[in-house]
Amino acid sequence: MKRHVALIIETSSSYGRDLLAGIVRFMRMHDEWSVFLEQRDLRKKPPAWLRKWNGDGIISRATTPDLVKAIATTGVPLVELTDRGEDLGLLQVRSDDHAIGRIAAEHLLERGFQKFGFCGFTGEAWSKRRQDGFVEALGAAGFDCDIYNSPWHGPSVRSWEDVQSKLTKWLKQFPRPFAVMTCNDMRGQHVLDACSNAELAVPEEVAVIGVDNDDLLCRICAPPLSSVIPNAEAVGFRAADLLSQVMNGNNITESSQVISPIGIATRQSTDVVAIDDPEIAAALQFIRENACRGISVDEVTQNASISRSTLERQLRKYLGRTPQEEIRHVQVGRIQELLLTTDLSIERISTLCGFEHPEYMHVVFKRLTQITPGEFRRQSQA
User: Fold this and answer.
1) pLDDT band at 19 (very low <50, low <70, confident <90, very high)
2) DSSP-derived secondary structure letter, 258
3) Fewer Cβ atoms within 10 A, N terminus or C terminus of the chain?
């Protein structure tokens, strides 16, 4: 007999829809649930039907203290996906927000930026964790970060014109070039609009990166917004797996679990290298655009009209890597993206990333990541 499970998850955001996709994938693999989907706003009161609902389990993205009280009276097990506020002491799965902030910082550092800002929402725990991860990663690299936060919801929210006026003033105070991480793609759109108001060129004067990789929203932005890709589908899958274990009587020792992000979807808003030396900037851009053709260092120096010794010296200065290491760095990043987001064979990925022989790709990948491509794909799927 199938178990009755309620899903209290919003479908208005790409993140919520990806959570549902992960839950559906679990359901298709196990075929043991009958599901009721309650589509609701994240801030609504608990549904009235919940107090009398005779079900077996709940996965909720709209968990509030009132909802916890309502569910407690039923005795039904709950896995929560909420990441907005305090820890409610429930079994929880969420994205690794610190890691999201960290890889956004790494992405911008790789482009040579030395001035940084973070733009988020006050009172949102997920935004604060992403801010902390971003600031900590920059601090470890020896850089400071200026913070701008304002309310997202509630009575203290100002008019759009007032918010954009303050955001524009904040952006104008940065020495150029600089880079800004925003807590999500919606906030990224706010920053890009303010950059337009401030007559700041993106990405030449300011690079902007968001979070969630909401493809439609990112492409509506002008220019298209780069974004960190959280693994929301894996969050949903893991939540479904945990709920299944609890309903089967298993004891879960780790009450809060986090899922690492996939990587970066690079679009025009960060497609730049913030280096004062135009020859070095051109060399890095050439590497970024052509590494997966299997280029050599000689091709890079010929394209940038620069000596090999100068290129070696300047890349060590700016990035801490040799030109060959930078080529491999770009190739491995692309390999990771294809392993995570496609079902392509290792052989096909090897060809797409500029390696003539898959065996050599294995060697390079393991040297840089300490695991094989196959192990990387299996771990990400797990």
Assistant:
1) very high
2) E
3) N
Query: Tokens 């971003």 identify what position?
Result: 134
Strand, coil or helix: 25: helix
Residue 333: helix, strand or coil by DSSP?
A: helix
For residue range 250-288, list pLDDT tens digits in order. 887 777 899 999 999 988 899 877 777 778 877 887 888
Residues 6+ apart with CB under 8 A from 367: none
The whole-angstrom separation of Cα 213 and Cα 226 is 8
Spell out the domains of the chain, with CATH numbers in brackets. 3-95+232-260 (3.40.50.2300), 97-230+265-270 (3.40.50.2300), 278-381 (1.10.10.60)
226 forms bridges with which residues in the sheet?
209
* CA count, 13 A, side-chain hemisphere, 10: 14
The predicted-structure confidence for 353-370, as pLDDT tens digits, reads as follows 999 999 999 999 999 999
Indicate the pairing of strand 57-60 with strand 3-8.
parallel
The helix, strand and coil proportions of the chain, stated in percent and rounded to the nearest 5, come to 50, 15, 35
Residue linked to tokens 């290792």: 346
Are the beta carbons of 95 and 84 closer than 8 angstroms?
no
Q: CA torsion 89→90→91→95, rounded to 10°?
A: -80
Average pLDDT over residues 130-145: 97
Give the strands of the sheet with 91-95, arranged side by side: 33-38, 3-8, 57-60, 78-80, 91-95, 256-259
Q: What is the per-residue pLDDT across 87-102, written as a single tens digit (0 to 9) for each?
A: 667 789 999 999 999 9
